[in-house]
Amino acid sequence: MKSSRLLSMLLLLQTRGRMTAAELAAELEVSVRTVYRDAEALAAAGVPLYGDAGHSGGYQLLAGYRTRLTGLNSGEAEALFLTGMPGPAAQLGLGPALSAAQLKLRAALPPEMREQADRMRLRFHLDAPGWYAEHEDTPHLAQVADAVWRGRVIEVRYRRWKEPREVDRRLAPYGLVLKAGRWYLVAAPAQAEPRTYRVDQILSVTETEERAEPPHGFDLAAHWRRTQTDFHARLYPEEALVRLSPRAAARLTGAQARALTATAEPDPDLPGWTRAVLPIESHTQAQDQFLSLGPDAEVLSPPPLRAAIRTALTTMTARYT
Length: 321
Fold this sequence. Notes:
The structure is a single chain. By secondary structure, the protein is α+β, with helices and mostly antiparallel strands. The protein has 13 helices and eleven strands. The chain has helices at 2-16, 21-28, 32-44, 74-82, 86-91, 95-108, 111-123, 141-150, 220-235, 246-250, 254-263, 283-292, 303-320; strands spanning 49-52, 58-61, 152-159, 166-179, 182-189, 195-198, 202-211, 238-244, 265-266, 274-280, 297-301. It has a five-stranded antiparallel sheet with strand order 6-5-4-3-7, with helices on one face. The protein has a four-stranded antiparallel sheet with strand order 9-10-8-11. Helix 4 (74-82) packs parallel to helix 7 (111-123). The protein is extended, with a radius of gyration of 28 Å.
């Protein structure tokens, strides 16, 4: 345990430079006193580590010092091979680089770890797109990725869902996100907040010499989580109180399945059935969905949605009589 922590401390200082004892303690999840003892242990082992006192002080390695020791354990080695995504890497133009990196990593592992990593690679495979998602060409992905990496403003021709369908945009790219097999560009138009663009809808790209830097403190992962939360809030702006049989409840997915878990209560009138408040996109969408559940679901409110379903059922009954 201690040897692993010492190695982690060494690699933190090697990759980040000067760090205070408090920062190291937070990263390693130990006390500041433990950091002091570990620093003494590293110095005693011959690691050129020195510390400065004061407000701007901290621990730092001697300039130019690097360790070739990685200290990977078997679980970490297996995880590295499991995170390899040949499909997305190839789309970004990094397929050969990923293969070469995995080959070098495999060669550096001890024989027993190499066998475990190989077994992980052979028995687990990541296929991100959904079953019914069609492959979408992203011919400009590599160029967009290059602009993101180099921090360059791009001028794009973009196809959107509303008129005019094709528009020209000048964008400062902040990052790329792969979601369910589809690539999204997070970028800011001129003097605007960052927005999300589907890369497969980009028709042309021209990279400029203008620099594009994300705002200070911008975190792509945190921004994407906020975007997802806002998207779901806009996607399901309304709610419906629904009575469900076990069969209907088992057919719910996504946000409605989560809402069922959070709000479900036993129905007082039908034993074995459940009442729950479910998010819905619109009355039209909800009418089609709950009609598809047949006799296993009953909308209790809102009244307009219940009335619309009753009208639809009356029409269907007359048609089939």
